Amino acid sequence: MQSVKIGILGLGTVGSGTVNVLTRNSREISRRAGRDIEIYRAADRDLDKPKSCDTSNINLTDDAFEVINDPEIQIVVELIGGTGIAKDLVTQAIENGKHVVTANKALIAMHGNELFALAQEKGVTIAFEAAVAGGIPIIKAMREGLAGNRIEWLAGIINGTGNFILTEMREKGRDFADVLAEAQALGYAEADPTFDIEGIDAAHKLTIMASIAFGIPLQYYKCYTEGISKISQEDVQYAAELGYRIKHLGIAKKMDSGVELRVHPTLIPERRLIANVNGVMNAVVVKGDAVGPTLYYGAGAGSDATASAVVADIVDIVRALTTDPENRVPHLAFQPDALKDTPILPMNEVVTSYYLRIHTLDVPGVLADITRILSDEGINIEAILQKEDHGGLVPIIMLTQAVVEKNMDRAIEQIEALDTVPDAIMRIRMESLGG
Fold first, then answer.
1. Is 10 helix (H, G, I), strand (E, B) or coil?
2. How far apart are CA 296 and CA 282, in angstroms?
3. Cβ atoms of residues 179 and 186 within 8 Å
């Protein structure tokens, strides 16, 4: 049987890894796919730059449009990233009747709805397993392995840079700025780390997972996003004293009133498996009504790890090349005409528990004022720690029971208005992540 010819756009970290995996495991991959897979052409903007893969048998070009317009190529693998030229290339590839594999989470999260509609019209597939959690097959798990479940919620550590920073802060007592500098030196964080530490990267990934979990259109712009740059060493220590760890989580929950879609620092009980996912590793917990909580763990980035997901998508498409387009696995797990426009809840309507760190003056009656305000807003205290005086300020640490966020917003505003509370309150949301 004739081999399937693919074209790769971008020979950077993931592109080179994809070439290496396809070459190294070619026999095994062919046995699984039922046909040989040939890297027929590849595009890279700097052909003179040394590559981390063998390109001697690949037709190279610096014009990506030459690849997507080549009639010999059946599958285009987009590994450029971003939402500029990558969107134009993917759109043109679909218009040309070619299947697409991509690791581009921003492209899928922000433009997936229109791209999937175009792919449906043209009878081709867009595969994007590598766009979420690197080598962890979380898309396939939710879309196929959990197809018999009503997914109730999911929560994930889906950015390795943020997890590395929080792990170092907890294990070695280091400050945020110090660990961030090391992450940049090690190549875990970019020179501009905003996408990682402020949760934008995680929000792209969470948007994709939530759509697959709940059968809703992609709605990245409705995802609440909060970073970890305000987490201090004292917050990490106080959380540990109370039996919790701080993780930067993406959380999606299906509620009667709508869908929660949020990325933020979160206290989780240290006994949970996901609380013990450290360094640059990723993990996602998915709770189905039939199966209960399931955990998916692995490398969330890296050359070969992400290439593993890219190649798996290529194999899936090769297997389905002769399949009637109407009988392929839907892009977002649910049939396109069955997606529901379930509302995304605003953050102030979310119900959760809280960790509060309040610095107060060391004078009588402060704690009574704070507890009165919380009580007036219907907020019950689960635990409280009062630490020693630090330069005239006393840290008070509180864990609350679950309350709607707008009530907590009002309470914090009132507490910060007290003359005895000179600093802004540190608020971190809490999740039990139990079955």
1. coil
2. 8
3. no
344 found inside a domain: no
What DSSP letter does each residue of 303-339 carry, written as one string? Answer: HHHHHHHHHHHHHHHHHTTTS-GGGSPPTTSS-GGG-
Catalytic (active site) residue 205: yes
| Residue 218: inside a domain | yes
- Domain extent at residue 247: 138-299
Same domain for 47 and 189: no
Same domain, 253 and 322: no
CA distances from 269 to 245, 272, 296 (A): 6, 6, 18
What's the pTM value of the predicted model, to 2 decimals? 0.94
CA 69, distance to chain mean position in Å, is 32
Same domain, 227 and 278: yes
pLDDT tens-place string over residues 67-104? 999 999 999 999 999 999 999 999 999 999 999 999 99
| Catalytic residue (one of 140, 205, 253, 287) | 205
Q: Of 164, 369, 343, whose CA–CA distance to 257 is shortest? A: 343
**119 and 166 assigned to the same domain:** no
Give yes or no for a contact between 69 and 93, defined as CB atoms under 8 angstroms apart.
Answer: no
Strand partners, 355: 399, 428
